[in-house]
Amino acid sequence: MHKHKKEIQIGITVIVALTILFFGINYMKGKEFFSSNNTYFAVYSSVSGLHASNYIYINGMKVGYVKKIERMDSRGQHFLVTISIDNDVKIPHDSKLVMYSSGLLGGTEMRIDVGSSSVFLNSKDTIDAHAEIGMMDKLGGDLKPTIENITVAAAHLDSVLMAINKLLDEQGRNNIEQSIENIKVSTEYLASISIQIDGLLDKEKVRVKQILANLESITDNFNSNSDKFNNIISNFSNIADTLAQANIGQTLRETNQSLISVSTILKKIQTGEGNIGLLINDDSLYNNLNLSAKKLDALIEDIKANPKRYVKISVF
């Protein structure tokens, strides 16, 4: 009895292990047994790098996985990809299932680009399938024509060099070597000239810096004396306002009129008009006046010397 009980335990253990193994293998293959997820289909012409159980993402979040990949024809030109999506995820009718490469060394992944339609796909509907070209495929496609051109150019260059080698004799080779040597000497000479030019440019840079420093000093001086300049300008402005209010035109006219009057008087004096003119221009009047003054002086002296002659005193 004890022996049969042990055999039964072993048998149950084996059955449980096989069951777990069966469900585990099928789960890894993407098969569902107790899930109520929605199923959708997509058709691709190539499924390179895609495997069952690959995750499917929407905006970086996992929402499902690839359940199964099947060949639709004997030539392997079309493949039916069955995907399982969480039942709480609603997929608009214009959404796209995109197969893309995750990087330079990464594998193939899938995502859903959600559309904007208000109509949603039902379970077992077909979703629009797209495949993005990976970075390595793009680089390979872009570099392929370039590599081909380089290969052709290298072949032509090799042919040209071989032809030149056959045509040139020893003297021709020596001439080419001499030309290369001349080019080398010329290059060194140009390099020395470039160094000299750099030195001159450095000197000019120093001069320019000095000039800029002087200009900066002048600007600082001007800024420090700006108040004085403002006062001078203000004084000039006040003088201008005073001159404007003084009626310079009227003053100049009056001055001109006075000068004309003085000029007229001087002309009359020069021509002998009036007493002053006669006095200045007629010597006889001057002589008479001079003689009268002398006689008056003599009379005064005589009065002082002989007052009785001129003043009579009578006593009553």
What are the main properties of this structure?
elongated, alpha/beta, 7-stranded mixed beta sheet, 316 residues
Tell me, what's the shape? elongated
Number of helices: 8
Rounded to the nearest angstrom, the radius of gyration is 63 Å
Q: Secondary-structure element order, as H and E? A: HEEEEEEEHHHHHHH
Number of strands: 7
Overall structural class, as computed from helix and strand content, comes to: alpha/beta
The stretches of 5 or more residues where confidence is low (pLDDT under 50) are none
Distance between the termini: 213 Å
Describe this structure in words.
- With 316 residues, the protein is an alpha/beta fold.
- Among the domains are: 32-132; 140-186; 247-309, no CATH class.
- Helices cover 61% and strands 14% of the residues.
- It contains eight helices and seven strands, in the order αβββββββααααααα.
- The protein has helices at 2-28, 135-167, 170-224, 226-245, 248-271, 274-281, 283-305, 307-310; strands at residues 38-44, 55-58, 61-71, 79-85, 96-101, 108-113, 128-131.
- The protein has a seven-stranded mixed β-sheet, with no helix packed on it.
- β3 (61-71) and β4 form a beta hairpin.
- α5 crosses α6 (274-281).
- It is elongated, with a radius of gyration of 63 Å.
- The model has no long low-confidence stretch (mean pLDDT 76).
